[in-house]
Amino acid sequence: MRKKLWISLALAFVIPGLLFTASCAKKAVEPEPAVAEDDAAAKAAAEKAAAEEAARKAKMDATELFLYEEIYFEFDKSDLLPESQEVLRRKAEFLKDNPDLMVIIEGHCDERGTNEYNLALGDRRASSAKAFLVNLGIAGSRLTCISYGEERPSDPGHNEAAWAKNRRDHFTID
């Protein structure tokens, strides 16, 4: 009987003790702020990458605009038209934002006139664009003029519309 009493007492104290210690066990808590910091860092890195990509795309768009926006001249003239001056102002801003670029200004003419005359006229047209850019603060050493005369037409047609497209200055990056 004593044995039963000891077993009963042991069970009476051991079982509640086990239940009490098992139910009060502390759970390990994962640190949430570290995850939040990682998420914030990843988000910041993604935003930075997106901003860099947008800046690269904007620079590429500005470069394409610089290269493909030409200036045009009237027949047998090298004077800059008001529209051409506006284009050159935009080109000057681009060149100020990109001080390491060297530029070639190509002077072109339509097919009318002799080869020698058109080469000279193309040179005058390129030089007038260069002088305008220099007056806007672009270093003349960054600008090179070349004349192609009538040799590289933009439009191979033989009418006034084609000739108007061929009387131009084209800009390339060296």
Concise summary:
With 174 residues, the chain is α+β, with helices and mostly antiparallel strands. It contains 5 helices and 4 strands, in the order H-H-E-H-E-H-E-H-E.
Report the top-level CATH class of the domain at 82-174.
Answer: Alpha Beta
Q: Identify low-pLDDT runs.
A: none
Task: Tell me which CATH architecture of the domain at 82-174 applies here.
Answer: 2-Layer Sandwich
- Overall outline: rod-shaped
> Strand fraction band?
5-15%
The main β sheet shows up as: 4 strands, mixed
CATH homology superfamily of the domain at 82-174: OmpA-like domain
- Rg, rounded, reads 39 Å
What is the share of helical residues?
A: 55-70%
Q: What's the end-to-end separation, in Å?
A: 109 Å
- Helix run count: 5
Give me the count of strands: 4
Look at the helices and sheets and give the structural class: alpha+beta
What does the average pLDDT come to? 86
Topology overview:
Blueprint lengths: L1 H22 L8 H37 L2 E2 L9 H16 L5 E6 L6 H21 L7 E7 L10 H7 L1 E6 L1
Parallel strand pairs: 2-3
Antiparallel strand pairs: 1-4, 2-4
